[in-house]
Amino acid sequence: MRVLIADDYQRATAALPALVAHAQGLDVQVLGALPEALEARAALLQPAHALLLIRERTRIDAALLERLPQLRLISQTGKVGAHVDVAACTARGVAVAEGVGSPIAPAELTWALVMAAMRRLPAYGAALQAGRWQDTGDAVLGRTLHGRTLGVWSYGKIGRLVAGYGRAFGMQVLVWGGEAARAAAQADGVDVAASVEALFERSDVLSLHLRLVPATRHQVDAALLARMRPDALLVNTSRAELIAPGALLAALEAGRPGMAALDVFEHEPAVPQREPLLTHPRVLAMPHLGYVEQDSYALYLGTALDNVRAFADGTPRNLVNPEALTGNR
């Protein structure tokens, strides 16, 4: 079975032991970033019997599927998201399998961004490389975390880890989210905000860990951001679409919040022409590295390849659309 791994920006999967350990009996090829033009993308993907998708990088829609007559399976690393049109896959008899993930790497990256932004490490490092000792040019000092308030919006697997990091650093942790999230936080002895508005008003550091669903899309709007303190930090390693378009840039220009640390953008791969936040002086920006880490890749890739092998062996598993196998293409 010919398997193409699409949009591996770093071509890192080819060097992973998991590729050898889990790909036995499969013809696996790793592709770098795919071109944006539909026909060019389809030409590269056309030989595939199975596509292995790295998180949400590769969009699979009806127009692309029509140009991939040999495709039988999409094997997703982690959970299937909105980037895959499952209904279109089912209509064309293409099965979609999803894998597993881990909250550890994104939670640790979140905390790395918190510490780097609060202590202004990128600015100090850039100044040092330019020959200036402790001189960032703006006389603004970094700040410690101890004694300050960490706001965590939603309390799932990642949010719970980040809250734990905050407590370990001596922060007061404040949680908001749905009823289940608030109940879980209270069960863990973590304070719950009186309202989402209170969360934004009280947080020195506010980290977003909401799932992107229709109800949460653009939920962080100008009114909420305006409630943040002028020296507060907003961290988003979850989904860019949680924030209303243009709202964060306008809020930073208005001075509330004072800083942002971002790992996600609406247009990825992000470039300054599309994403002015990339070059904003009070934004620490990373290229969606939350899950881009050796152990996470091994877990994601190993499970996704195991799903391909099971499909090739005639024992498909972890399908989100098993009905795709009952019809004829």
Helix coverage percent of residues? 25-40%
Number of helices: 12
What is the rounded Rg? 22 Å
* Global outline: globular
Low-pLDDT segments: none
Listing every helix as H and every strand as E from the N terminus to the C terminus, the arrangement reads: EHEHEHEHEHHEHEHEHEHEHEEH
* Strand order, sheet with most strands: 8-7-6-9-10-11-12
* Strand-residue proportion: 5-15%
Largest sheet: 7 strands, parallel
Organism: Pseudoxanthomonas winnipegensis
InterPro entries: D-2-hydroxyacid_DH, D-isomer_2_OHA_DH_cat_dom, D-isomer_DH_NAD-bd, NAD(P)-bd_dom_sf
Family: Belongs to the D-isomer specific 2-hydroxyacid dehydrogenase family.
Domain D-isomer specific 2-hydroxyacid dehydrogenase catalytic: 24-321
Task: Provide keyphrases for this structure.
329 residues, alpha/beta, 7-stranded parallel beta sheet, 5-stranded parallel beta sheet, 12 strands
SSE order and pairing:
Blueprint: E1 2-6, H1 17-22, E2 27-30, H2 38-45, E3 50-53, H3 62-65, E4 73-76, H4 86-91, E5 95-98, H5 104-118, H6 121-129, E6 149-153, H7 157-168, E7 172-176, H8 179-187, E8 191-192, H9 196-202, E9 205-208, H10 222-225, E10 233-236, H11 247-254, E11 259-262, E12 283-285, H12 294-312
Parallel strand pairs: 1-2, 1-3, 3-4, 4-5, 6-7, 6-9, 7-8, 9-10, 10-11, 11-12
Helix pairs in contact: 5-7
